[in-house]
Amino acid sequence: MAMNYQAPWWLPGGNVQTIWAALRAKRHLGGKPLFTRTRWTTPDNDFIDVDWLDGAASAQAGQQPLLVVFHGLEGSSSSHYAEAFADVARQRGWACAVPHFRGCSGELNWAPRAYHSGDYEEIDWILRRLAGEHAGPVLAVGISLGGNALMRWAAEAGADARRVVAGVASVCSPLDLAASGWAIGRGFNRLVYTRMFLSSMVPKALKKLDQHPGLFDRERLLAARDLYAFDNIFTAPVHGFKDTDDYWARASAKPHLRRIAVPALALNAVNDPFIPASSLPTAQGVGTHVTLWQPKTGGHVGFPGAGRRVVPELPGHVRLMPEAVASFLAQQLPSP
Q1: How far is it, in rounded angstroms, from Cα 57 to Cα 38?
Q2: 144 catalytic per annotation
Q3: What's the Rg (C-alpha) of the chain?
Q4: What pLDDT digit, counting tens, does each position of 260-290 carry?
Q5: Which strands sit side by side in the sheet containing 95-99, from one edge to the other?
Q6: N or C terminus: which one in the chain shows less Cβ crowding within 10 Å?
Q7: What angle, rounded to 10 degrees, do the helices at 177-184 and 244-251 form?
Q8: Alpha-carbon gap, residue 13 to 296, rounded angstroms
């Protein structure tokens, strides 16, 4: 099975496919997915917020599978991909949870730390708690940053990952953080995407500085014009890395894909503007448990559908990708 995706002719190029999917495409078949929020206290006395599909405030929803969706950089349960995955889960009769990385649920977290691309220890704590509370099998998908962190966790967990999840998937994830970091800092990417991310990341970091005076140099942060500089001043030192180069090298999942011992899917469009095609993993660079899907088009978390022939109700929808990923994950479920 593979995702044989081809972008509509009227959405040419990775940037158009990325932007249309995020801003204009339809996300759900029925009504907008509704979430109920619960707050968890973290082991270091901070908090994260977990949004549950259709008001299921407890993970103990029954024997049905639970789909856990880890969002991307500055994402949330209202991101287009999170709503699309929640809608697919609803159609399949699955429970669905969207845990928010620290500071992404609309309220600043309390601790000095925030979140980062290799935050596998946080992923581990979240998944093990969900698996311990939910009666049915757990499946996990990570989008972009969340997918790199998820694959990094799967590698660290090794064979023990099977005790926690039945399968995992990463979607448009920067598995080679250095390659993606440099790509997003250049040309059109720098003008549009970098500026968009920094417009929310910098104010949140400044609020973090108000919480914890002396955490970093305010003037240096205000002068940051790309993610490399931002990570050098804030993300890397706050989370225990020497600098951006150290952070990107140690947090990247790509060098660890051979160690994954649970069914895992890595889906990346070759024309993703954030991720150079030359940096994508190859079949020779991953273990036997890892499946690679690398369609030629789709953009970054885009994959918009033409609409009329596939889903008549949704011209320009984004259902194809989450449906394909959910089908892969469903194949990993234990037999009834």
Answers
A1: 6
A2: yes
A3: 19
A4: 999 999 999 999 999 999 999 999 999 999 9
A5: 35-41, 47-53, 95-99, 66-70, 138-143, 167-171, 264-267, 290-293
A6: C
A7: 130
A8: 10
* Catalytic site residue from 49, 272, 289, 317: 272
Domains of the chain: 14-176+252-330 (3.40.50.1820), 183-251 (no CATH)
Tell how strand 138-143 and strand 95-99 pair up.
Answer: unpaired
Q: Which residue has the tokens 């970054």?
A: 300
- Of the residues 80, 116, 134, 300, only one is catalytic, namely 300
- Predicted TM-score of the model (pTM): 0.95
C-beta separation of 29 from 313 below 8 A: yes
Q: Alpha-carbon distance 151 to 143, whole Å?
A: 11
- Residue that wins the pLDDT comparison between 62 and 268: 268
Q: What is the pLDDT of residues 72-104, one digit of tens each?
A: 999 999 999 999 999 999 999 999 999 999 999
In degrees and rounded to multiples of 5, residue 293 shows phi and psi of -115, 120
The catalytic position among 77, 105, 117, 144 is 144
Residues 6+ apart with CB under 8 A from 234: 114, 205, 208, 216, 221
Contact 257, 290 (CB under 8 A): yes
In this structure, the number of other CB atoms found within 10 A of the CB of residue 238 comes to: 19
Q: Are 36 and 55 in contact (CB under 8 A)?
A: yes
List, in sequence order, every beta strand (DSSP E) within 8-70: 35-41, 47-53, 66-70
Strand partners, 48: 40
Contact yes or no for 248/183 (Cβ under 8 A): no
Average pLDDT (283-304) is: 96
**Residue in the structure block whose two tokens are 């040309």:** 187
Q: Which residues of 260-297 are buried (b: 16+ CB within 10 A; e: fewer)?
A: bbbbbbbbbbebbbbbeeebbbeeeebeebbbbbbbeb
Tell me whether residue 212 is one of the annotated catalytic residues.
no
Distances (CA, A) of 322 to 147, 171, 201, 303, 319: 14, 9, 27, 9, 6
